[in-house]
Design brief:
Length: 163
C-alpha cells in the first residue's frame, strides 16, 4: 500500500495537497486525520471540502462533533472527536444511519472513538515541524491506494519537501 510523505510544508502547500487529493474522493470513502492540536487537520479538511465544491463556510467541528455537507449528491461528514470521553459517546451521533449510504468521511481524532467510526481508507498524518508541518499519506485499502496514486500523478510530488 502506498505511503508517501511531504516535509516542511507551509499552509499554502498543505492546502494545495488537499486540493490535489480532492478529485479522487468524489465517490466517497473514509479519511482519518491524525496529529497534535494545531497540526493542520481542519486546515487540510477545509481546503479539501472547498475543492470538492462545498461553498458553505467550513467550521471546525470542535464543539458540534460533526458538521455535515452535501455536494453534487455526495454526503460529507466532517467529525472532530477530540472532546469525547470514549467510544460510547459517539453512539448518539447515529453514525450507522449515515454509514448505510455512500459518504465521504473526514474524521479528526478518530483514535478517540476506536472502532465506533468507519475504518480508514486513508490516514492523513500531520505533525508540527518548527513553523511548518510534515504530512504523511498512509493508504490502508485498495481505494486509499488509488487516491494516493492519483495525487502523485496529479503533479509534482516534491512540493515543499525538505531538500
Ligand atoms: N503548514 C501549515 N499547515 C497547516 N496549518 C498551519 C501551517 N502553518 C501554520 N498553520 C496554522 O496552524 C493552525 C492549524 O490549525 P488547525 O485547526 O488546522 O489544526 P487541527 O489539527 O485541526 O487542530 P485541532 O486538533 O485543535 O482540531 C492554523 O492556525 C494555521 O493557520
Ligand atoms: Mg481541527
Amino acid at each position: 500500500m502506498p505511503d508517501v510523505s511531504f516535509g516542511a510544508i507551509d499552509e499554502s502547500a498543505l492546502a494545495e495537497l488537499a486540493r490535489r487529493l480532492a478529485p479522487a474522493l468524489h465517490d466517497g470513502g473514509v479519511v482519518h486525520l491524525t496529529g497534535a492540536l494545531g497540526a493542520g487537520k481542519t486546515t487540510f479538511a477545509r481546503a479539501l471540502l472547498g475543492a470538492l465544491g462545498v461553498r458553505a463556510r467550513v467550521k471546525s467541528p470542535t464543539y458540534s462533533l460533526i458538521e455535515s455537507y452535501e455536494c453534487d449528491g455526495l454526503g460529507i461528514q466532517h467529525l472532530d472527536l477530540y472532546r469525547i470521553a470514549g467510544a460510547g459517546e459517539v453512539e448518539w451521533l447515529g453514525l450507522r444511519d449515515y454509514a448505510a449510504e455512500r459518504q465521504l468521511w473526514l474524521i479528526e481524532w478518530p483514535e478517540r472513538a476506536r472502532d465506533a467510526v468507519p475504518p480508514a481508507d486513508l490516514v492523513v498524518h500531520l505533525a508540527h515541524a518548527g513553523d511548518r508541518r510534515t504530512l504523511r499519506l498512509e493508504a490502508l485499502t485498495p481505494a486509499g491506494s488509488l487516491w494516493v496514486k492519483a495525487l502523485e500523478a496529479s503533479g509534482r510530488t516534491q512540493i515543499g519537501t525538505a531538500g
